Automatic annotation (TrEMBL):
Pfam families (alphabetical): Peptidase_S58
Listed GO MF terms: aminopeptidase activity
Protein name: D-aminopeptidase
Keyword tags: Aminopeptidase, Hydrolase, Protease
Keyword Protease listed: yes
Enzyme class: hydrolase
Stated family: Belongs to the peptidase S58 family.
Matches recorded under InterPro entries: ArgJ-like_dom_sf, Peptidase_S58_DmpA
E.C. number(s) listed in UniProt: 3.4.11.19
């Protein structure tokens, strides 16, 4: 599937990294486990599943070497475990797990088990609160039965570790936790993008897009949602929620990470988000450049004040582009009860941008 850059769509002024994805940040990995199932409805079966798990692994051992982190909430009708402790301590101690709303507990349990099996200090020296965030995919996926298993979480985590150093972007669109998501009236899901700032540091964004109304879809400043000839086409109902994960290799402290996270909302707004009443826009930012061993402080000097301005711009641009990459990658998906999220008609969109 084409990405925004492949279609000649330029977002902002900063250059992208080699893969144009969050994988451009050194040591970062992304893995998906897609759950696609067609069974009779409960109680005879588990119903139709269009769901999954996505893992963003910052590399190394976050329990032994926590990562400066901060978060922001645009609208809080959602859940992200570990968010409060990351805000309080300014540190992330686990990879980040994404899934659907009613699978969050299963993914949390599996994350605790899997990470504890790898690190003997977990549960002995200290406990962990894994960062697990969700969006609602119940328009396409049967949510009355638990569809995700520990094996799915393990597979996504292993795939994330294996993707480190990849020379191409990870899969986007209807994959992993994005399998059942809808965005701006079309099929949504996972999207990612990156930017390189003048200092040479990289800012990567990965998001799970499940928000917005078709009439508000905006691409590179053009009101595409109002310009597309869509008479008679089915449409997904206005969806709510978007999880945005920002990672950079720059030396930025927890307060700076919180400020980075907040800028993700500007990127979403440029695509047509108005943060609906029932929408959960939750943003988390990590900065590996000040990473240090547990109980110690990095010797690096944190960037401050106006030094952060290029990073703010990078987050806004990469977030906007990640949404577009998600939309361009996602095909039409038919889910439970025949509900359908149409893929964005790229061949109709491109002429509108010219």
């Amino acid at each position: 599937m084409p990405r925004a850059a492949d279609l000649g769509i330029t977002i902002g002024t900063l250059p992208s990294g080699p893969t144009g994805s969050i994988l451009d940040v050194p040591g970062v990995g992304v893995g998906h486990a897609t759950v696609w199932r067609d069974e009779p409805s409960p109680p005879l079966g588990r119903g139709v599943a269009r769901t999954g798990v996505t893992v963003i692994d910052p590399g190394g051992n976050p329990f032994r070497s926590p990562i400066p982190a901060g978060g922001a909430v645009l609208n809080g009708a959602g859940e992200c475990t570990g968010f409060l402790s990351a805000q309080e301590w300014g540190l992330a101690e686990t990879p980040i797990f994404l899934t659907s709303t009613m699978q969050l507990g299963r993914v949390y349990d599996a994350a605790c088990e899997l990470l504890a099996e790898e690190e003997p200090g977990i549960g002995d020296e200290d406990v962990i609160i894994p960062i697990v965030a969700e969006c609602d995919d119940s328009f396409l996926s049967e949510s009355r039965r638990m569809q995700v298993t520990r094996d799915d979480v393990a597979a996504a985590l292993a795939a994330a570790r294996a993707s480190v150093g990849s020379t191409s972007a990870p899969a986007e669109g209807a994959v992993g936790s994005g399998t059942g998501m809808s965005c701006l009236g079309f099929k949504g899901g996972i999207g990612t993008a990156s930017r390189v700032v003048p200092t040479g540091h990289t800012v990567g964004v990965l998001l799970m897009a499940n928000y917005g109304e078709r009439e508000r879809l905006t691409i590179a400043g053009r009101p595409v949602g109002r310009l597309l000839p869509l008479a008679g086409q089915p449409t997904a109902p206005p969806a709510g929620s978007c999880i945005v994960v920002v990672i950079t290799d720059a030396p930025i402290d927890a307060a700076g990470c919180q400020r980075l996270a907040r800028r993700a909302g500007l990127g979403l707004a440029r695509t047509g988000s108005t943060a609906h009443h029932a929408s959960g826009e939750i943003f988390v930012a990590l900065a590996t450049g000040l990473r240090a061993e547990r109980g110690t402080v990095s010797a690096a000097v944190a960037l401050q004040g106006r030094e952060l301005d290029p990073f703010f711009a990078a987050v806004v641009e990469a977030t906007e582009e990640a949404v577009l990459n998600c939309l361009f990658a996602a095909p039409t998906v038919v889910g439970r009860s025949g509900n359908t999220a149409e893929g964005l008609p790229v061949d109709q969109v491109i002429p509108l941008l010219r």
